[in-house]
Amino acid sequence: MSQSRIGNAAGLWSLPEWLNTPLRMLTIFLGGATGALGMALSMLSMPAEPVWIVPGLLLGFVAIYQSIFVHEFGHLLGARLGGMTVMRLRVGRWDFRMRRRGWIVSRQPKHPQKLAGYVMAFADPRGPWRRQHVWFNAGGPLANMLVAGLAGLLSLTLEDGPVQGLLLAVAATNACMGVANLLPVQGKLKQVSDGLWMLRWWRGMDAAHPQLAFARLMGLSCSGLCADQVPEADLQLLESQESPMPLVALYIRLRALQIQGRWQEAAALDSSFQTQRNALPEALQKVLYDMLRLIGAELAFAQAVASRSALGLFDELLPQRLQSEYTSIWARCLAMRAAATGDQQEFRRQLDLAVAFARQSPDLSQETEELRMQQHLLELLPA
């Protein structure tokens, strides 16, 4: 699936409910068929002895899992072909964070939807949005259909056996996955299928639509526009939308104040952050755990600079996993801790690391923002 989940409530075009409902039921059926056919074809291709039951189950699981990998990597390739900036890809617990060169692979905490996947990619505002998004949304289903066709043709050249069974399972799971995602369906929880997004763009969806404010802001950021340069109108649109968009707007405003060296004003956003966080349902707080910890860490950093005290920058401010992911932020925290102890050499080294880590990000604004923060910090706390 794509990273966007915007439905009728947002004022975007969708099929009428009398047509959407049966197509949604068909999508659910195809989802079940993906798992059932993957397991059945793998199991039936094995010898009849009980000892082959476990290998058959394992092959079935591989067939199902690979169809999701194929789908998401198809989205990644489509995004790249369209000229979008790809930030990350996730399948189940496998997380691929993109860098300007290569990527970082890690295992993430368990998720209720163990076989879910997504690609986070944003359109380049300097190019045509329609072409970029059509490539992006078409990439996943087309990759599934291509692999299904190749696996099916190859299976015809083989005799009955486990290898042929695996290829048939691969063909079936990819075919079901591809067709299911091509159906122009909106789910009950506002999930939007690839097929529906493609129809919306082919119908001439307006790139200036209010519900695309987040995508516009992220596209500008990835192209190098800093947080204090983004359109105020889009920030206000985010603040008027459902959670977590107001939190995203708060984070952008926080970054804007930080890169301008306005540390007291940045730290003062903590009260607004606490109010918004406490208003979130517990289930949503769990989903937004990483984002909430990120904003909390940035606010703690701003408070540390404003007060010239690193007491709030303790090791547990960010879990080890997030220290490794938000490397620039954590390097800045370590720089402030070094400054508090009078270790000017370590202070400067950690600031340089923060810039070096940001330089690896496909989001081109990150490096510029870290350089601007570094300049303010060196003026405030000279090394």
From TrEMBL:
Principal localisation: membrane
One GO cellular component term noted in the UniProt record for this chain: membrane
Transmembrane recorded as keyword: yes
Membrane topology label: Multi-pass membrane protein
Protein name as annotated: Peptidase M50 domain-containing protein
InterPro entries, per database record: Peptidase_M50
Stretches that traverse the bilayer: 23-44, 51-68
Upper taxonomic lineage: Bacteria, Pseudomonadati, Pseudomonadota, Gammaproteobacteria, Pseudomonadales
Domain Peptidase M50: 61-156
Pfam annotation, one family: Peptidase_M50
BP GO terms, sorted: proteolysis
Keywords assigned by UniProt, alphabetized: Membrane, Transmembrane, Transmembrane helix
Family: Belongs to the peptidase M50B family.
Subcellular location: Membrane
Reported cofactor(s): Zn(2+)
